[in-house]
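Q: How do we represent a protein-ligand complex in a form that can be generated token by token?
A: Start from the inputs.
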Amino acid sequence: MIGAPGSGKGTQGALLAEFLGLPCIGLGDLMRAEAQAGTPRGRELQAHMDAGRLAPDDLASEIVEIALTSSTDGFVLDGYPRTVAQAVRLDDFLATRAADLDLVVVFRVAEDALISRLASRGREDDQPEVIRQRLAIYWESANELIAYYGGRIVELAADGAVDDVHGRLLEGLREAIAS
Ligand code: AP5
Ligand code: MG
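Then emit the structure tokens for the protein with magnesium ion bound:
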């Protein structure tokens, strides 16, 4: 799942994973858990998150690959990859396991809705300045990443109520699988 901060990747990822009976692997969640543990790597991750910038590609990929290793029946991936370098590495990693991404969902939400969702959540990195930075960083790589995935992309209109978005997501996935 690719989408701007606040577009609903975590919310919809959890619902989709439950629907499919698969794990949802969210890199931001994994990074926050590691930061919470207070290891040296956790402190480095926290510094990246606090500044609203991406962690280095290699570090991000290592964390996800460890989680993917135990997800042999399939998975929903939230927020990874975010750069073409990460996408290439993910394709290589999955190829070694005779696996592949089936579909890539792109969440589309109006920017004012993103900002109001994040402002009312109030996570540590939901300060107005950090939100602006996260949005800017997202748009630095999003279009290139979407182009990389080409025909595997499912566009999702992700404005509106959570249940409605979930319904549209399932519908979009069914259509893409059928075509
Ligand atoms: P991450 O945790 O992934 O944050 P993000 O991409 O900024 O996205 P959010 O989690 O804020 O939004 P979301 O799209 O998941 O929406 P959510 O469902 O939560 O990443 C955090 C940091 O980790 C990054 O800044 C970076 O430092 C690092 N990182 C992560 N991935 C990386 C990578 N690949 N490489 C390098 N570094 C990486 O919803 C947001 C809010 O809106 C919630 O309160 C929710 O309840 C609400 N909401 C959701 N849907 C709706 C709806 N339909 N209507 C109303 N409210 C809604
Ligand atoms: Mg999230």
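The pocket of BIS(adenosine)-5'-pentaphosphate (ligand 1) is lined by residues 3, 5-11, 27-28, 31, 48-49, 52-55, 60, 79-82, 86, 117-118, 121, 134, 161-162, 165 (CB under 6 Å). The mean pLDDT is 97.
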